[in-house]
Design brief:
With about 60 residues, this protein is an alpha+beta fold. The protein has one domain (about 1-55). It contains 1 helix and 4 strands; from the N terminus they run ββββα. The strands form 2 sheets. Strands 1-2 form a two-stranded antiparallel ribbon. A two-stranded antiparallel sheet has the order 3-4. A hairpin with a 5-residue loop joins strand 1 (about 1-5) and strand 2. It is elongated. The structure holds zinc ion. Zinc ion binds next to loops.
Amino acid sequence: MIFTNPAGAPELACDECGCRWFDRMKNSCYECGAEVPPAAQAEYQQALLAFHRGKSRERSENGN
Ligand SMILES: [Zn+2]
């Protein structure tokens, strides 16, 4: 599952236990060992990209 942290950035959390800690080498949850499906990883990457795009747009609007 993907949720948004207080800073507004997307975070990937385990579908099984809701834990946010993943072993990136194995793509699995530290807590329960559940694998992160490729679809969820892709979704997270998209959310992250969208977040960073939004941030840079904000900066250029407010900046000089
Ligand atoms: Zn888990």
